[in-house]
Each structure stands twice: as structure tokens, then as C-alpha cells.
Specification:
Four copies of one chain form a homotetramer. The first copy, chain A, is α+β, with helices and mostly antiparallel strands. Chain A has one domain (6-139): Hotdog Thioesterase (Thiol Ester Dehydrase, Chain A, Roll), CATH 3.10.129.10. Chain A contains two helices and five strands; from the N terminus they run βαββββα. The longest helix of chain A is centred in the N-terminal third of the chain and has 17 residues, at 27-43. Chains in contact: A-B, A-C, A-D, B-C, B-D, C-D. The A-B interface holds A 18-20, 24-27, 29-30, 33, 52-53, 56-57, 60-68, 71, 110 and B 18-20, 24-27, 29-30, 33, 52-53, 56-57, 60-68, 71, 110. β2 (59-68) of chain C pairs antiparallel with β2 (59-68) of chain D, so a sheet runs across the interface.
Chain lengths: 152, 152, 152, 152
């Protein structure tokens, strides 16, 4: 078993705030992306090459969602807590909890599909699949329904 | 019955593109927001005041989601086709189809909750509710399951 | 002589607006970038390949500036009028006028340095230089002081 | 004399990177804005109210510029070092040095004009002017030419 959650701190910028005075709904997905990259780099699934955004060409995002619980403001520090919640044949699902001072302000999910060399969906390479399964927040046996719909 | 869908054209900017060479997943939500504002302004639910982003303080977004079907690129012109798909007591759900040259490249949804003067969720004012019901893409009788989970 | 100015229309998005209620100062540079790419593509200096942001690897931006004359708001349509204003040995300078309904709301400039195959600054290829000189908004003889400081 | 420079750390996000693989030129101005807000809040010129972007309505930005020395990448940590470099009757000028690991990667400037209650330019209130003069990076006597052109 490996450590399950990856925590990534985000400082809310003034330029994340829209004319409503709080962080725009689309920015939450940018925050989740920072969590996703940190999580997958920590697991060794994407390479941490200096000066590169690491996942390019390995997988594609096919679905994202977010529930907004409390507004975020300029100057807030958000912790994105990323966990793996489902692993399929060619796809996997990550969950994001956005916390401010320990309080949950939003929760999101994303589904990623692995890409083969031809740029089309492909089975997860076995070492990637094993790593993802080991990182599951809950044992797969407890969550049969969490299988992503997106996979074949 | 009123015209159901609002079509909003978006020109993809170079700065919408990330290091993968296509539009970042978070930007789709900015595109949906342009559709949402145009749709609600066309219905008269939010005021079209010059020089103001129109919905502030009227409602809040409690959930968004997006499914990505095809990548979008710099120079693409996207049509966001926005429809009302469910109306509850204090919330309503919008759906977004993103089309490029008539081909669907993504579809999204958002759930909005109306706000009272105290900034907390409140029943939809009756004229707003009537307008939204009239704008439903499909008659409510056909879609009982579409009732947003978020409402009371 | 070739047509000197390239006009690019930008629709201000709600997400360009910051908590002050008008377009954030940094966004003007995104608008200028749309003008820059359109101008250089029209001149044939950068290739218009479908689905690619076109200038990558050809040159780098070494300086930008902007003067803000009037605020921009959600829903405004801005025309970015881009002209070539100076051509040096390895660099060239572009100017941007941002117009709303014919009224100037901002003006900007950028200096670009050509890159050789080693990724370092290099003399402008002769056809590029000729094209840029032909596109100059004013004959070089009228603007000796406009020579970019950045070049050798 | 008060401490002159304000240092603000920025974590470069994946979504700051454009299709060239490095931070887009416009993002540097977002980084400068984080420095500007921190500097003016530290000096007490703008109020640090929780959950508000603090300067709204006090002044407007009339000019910005940036020189790009080295590219910035995903994962970089940038320190924005902000100093006051000129104080006029109704305007003041700030300078930004962007440092990565102590190495300067960019330098920028901005000119701000104070706003009166009618939203038009107004003389700096005397306490604001005094604070800004005390924060000058170099004594005014050394920099007579630094007087912003924008002021009356």
C-alpha cells in the first residue's frame, strides 16, 4: 500500500477572481489540474522532467466535474487533496477535495483515458495499472460501481 | 413556448491553449459561462446592463461538469448551444453543447441555485421560474428524473 | 507596398473581467497576442497550419508594453489593429491599437527577436526582413528613432 | 526609512504555460499584480480586508511594461520583488523584478494613477504620498528623470 492522497497547496491569485469578487468556477479546474499533476508525478506515472508539464501525450481527460460548497477568495490558500478512486482497463478516475483551513470548499473528479502511440485510447500499461490500483483510496472490492463508464 | 436554445460563438484564442497544444480542459467552462450568460440574458432572467457581467448576486453555481469528445485548437470557432434542462424549487440546470462546424466536441452542464437578499439559497421568483419552465428543451413531463439533486 | 494594418476582432469574455468589474490589465496582452498572430500569419511570416498556434520556435518576445486609456467591459467588442513599426537586424517591433467602436482604448507594443536553430537570437531571414520592411506602417526614413534598442 | 522591497512568491501553474511550453508573456503581468497588491498592502496604502482584492476604486493602472530575459516553466517558483521607483502628484511607479533561484528572469513596471471619488484622476492623498516617498527604492534626488510622464 502506498500513501493514498497527494496534497498540493494553491495560493489564490487576484486574477483568479471574477467580477463577483470570488474565484471563478472555471479556475477550480485549474486547481484540480495542479493536484492531478502532482499526484501522478508522485506516483511515478508521469515523469517529473524539469521544465515540462509532465503528462502530455500519455493520457487525455474525457470528463471533469466539480461541486462548489463555499466561495474562495483572493489570498486564500487552498489544499487540493487528490486521490485515485477507480481504475479501469484503459481509464482511471481521480477525486479532488479542495480544503481551506481544513474545511472542504469544493470537490471534483476527473476521468482520464490512456493513449496509445497512435493517439487513441489504449489499455493502461500494466505497471501504471498496478501503481494506480495500489494508490486507490479505498479497496476496489468496496467500490464496484465506481468503474468509470467511459471505458470499454 | 419560447425559442429553446441560445447559440453563442466563441473564437478560441492562442492563450486558451496549453502545452499539450489544444484548449485546456478548464477553458471549456469559460466557454460554457459565455453561453450561460447569453442564454439567461436572452430569457430576460438576468439584466443586460451595459458594461456589467450580468448575474452577480442573483444566483450561485453549485455544480458544473463537462465531457470532452474532441480536442479544440487555436483558431477554432465554437458554438455553445445552451438549453434549460431542469427547473426546481430554488435551482435550475443548464446544458451546453459545444459544436465546431456542426460537430459536437464537448457537452457540459451546470446547476445554479437562486440567492435571496441574505445571500442564501431561496425559491426561484415566480416569473423567473415560469420563464425557465417555458424555455425547457423538453417538456418537464418527459423528464421527471432531470430534477436537480441539489434542491430541497 | 502591402496592406499595413491587420485588424482582429476580440469579444470580451466575462472571464476576462476581474473583481474591479473591468478587463484585467494582463488580458490586454492576450488580446495583443491575437493581433500579433493574425498579423504575422497574414504577412506569411508564420505558417497558418490548421490547429497549431503558429509562431512557436521562430521568435521570442523580449519586451511588451501597454498604455491603458479607457476601461474595457464584458460584452465589448475590441478591434486590435496591428502594425509593424520597426525592423532591425534580428528583431522587429509591432504596435497594437485597441479600438472599441472606433475609439482607442489602449495601445501596446511588443519586440520580437528571431531565433536560430540553436534557440538563440539570429538575424532575420532575408525574406522575412523584406516582408516586414514592406509592411512598415511608416517608411523607415521617417522613423529613425524607432529602431528597437534590443537589437545588436 | 521603511523596508523598500516586497517579495512575493508565485508558483508557476501548468495552466500558465502556453503551447510554446513556457509561461505565456501575458502571465508575467498577473505575477506582477500579485507583487503590486502585496507591496501596497504591506505599505498600508491598500487595506488588507479578508476576502477582498484590496485596491479597487483607489487607483487605476495606466501603463505596464515587461522585459523578458529568460523563459519560465511549469513548477518554477518565482519571487516578485516589488519596489516603488517614482512618486508624482497623482501617480506613482512600481518596478518588479522576477527572480528564479536568485536569477533575474524578467523585469516590469507599472504606473498607477490615483482616483478621486468621482472616478477621475486626483492628487495622491498626503499620507499615501508620504508613505510612497518613504518606500522609494532610491532617494528621489538620484532619480529626477524617473518622474512618470503620466502625471500633471
Amino acid at each position: 500500500m502506498i500513501q493514498q492522497a497527494t496534497e498540493t497547496e494553491i495560493a489564490v491569485r487576484s486574477t483568479d477572481v471574477d467580477s463577483d469578487g470570488h474565484v471563478n468556477n472555471a479556475r477550480y479546474y485549474e486547481y484540480c489540474e495542479q493536484g492531478r499533476l502532482a499526484h501522478l508525478a508522485r506516483l511515478g506515472i508521469i515523469r517529473r522532467e524539469p521544465r515540462h508539464v509532465p503528462y502530455h501525450g500519455l493520457f487525455t481527460i474525457v470528463e471533469t466535474r466539480c461541486r462548489y460548497l463555499l466561495p474562495l477568495y483572493y489570498g486564500d490558500r487552498v489544499v487540493v487533496r487528490t486521490t485515485t478512486v477507480a481504475v479501469g482497463r484503459s481509464s482511471f478516475r481521480l477525486r479532488y477535495e479542495l480544503l481551506r483551513g481544513g474545511e472542504k470548499v469544493a470537490e471534483g473528479e476527473s476521468v482520464q483515458v490512456w493513449l496509445g502511440e497512435d493517439g487513441r485510447s489504449a489499455p493502461l500499461p500494466e505497471p501504471v495499472r498496478e501503481t494506480l490500483v495500489l494508490s486507490l483510496a479505498e479497496p476496489p472490492a468496496d467500490a464496484p460501481a465506481a468503474e468509470p463508464e467511459e471505458q470499454g
